[in-house]
Write a sequence for this structure.
C-alpha cells in the first residue's frame, strides 16, 4: 500500500507555500490594516443605546425560559417577552 507523500515546498519555519502571503512576508493585507484594528465602533447618542431591540428581548426571554437546555414553546417565549417589554410585545386591540 502506498502512502501519500507531500511534495509541497515549505519555508524554513515549516509553513506551506499556500499559507504564506503572496505579496511578501510581513506585509499587511490591503483590506485589514493595524489602524482599522484599533478603531473603536461609533457610539450611539446618549439615551439611544439604552433601549433593547426586539430580537434582543426575544433572545433574553428564551434564555430566561430555559431555552439553553430544552426546547421552549413559542407562546411561552411570547409571554416572557410581554413581561419584559409590554409596550413592544402586546396586541393592538388587546394591550393588556
Amino acid at each position: 500500500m502506498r502512502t501519500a507523500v507531500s511534495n509541497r515546498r515549505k519555508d524554513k519555519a515549516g509553513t506551506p507555500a499556500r499559507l504564506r502571503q503572496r505579496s511578501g512576508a510581513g506585509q499587511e493585507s490591503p483590506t485589514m490594516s493595524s489602524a482599522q484594528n484599533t478603531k473603536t465602533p461609533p457610539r450611539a447618542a446618549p439615551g439611544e443605546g439604552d433601549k433593547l431591540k426586539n430580537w434582543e428581548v426575544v433572545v433574553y426571554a428564551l434564555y430566561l425560559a430555559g431555552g439553553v437546555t430544552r426546547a421552549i414553546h413559542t407562546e411561552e417565549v411570547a409571554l416572557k417577552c410581554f413581561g419584559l417589554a409590554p409596550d413592544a410585545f402586546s396586541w393592538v386591540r388587546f394591550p393588556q
Observations:
- The chain has three helices and no strands.
- The chain has a mean pLDDT of 74.
- Residues 46-96 form one domain.
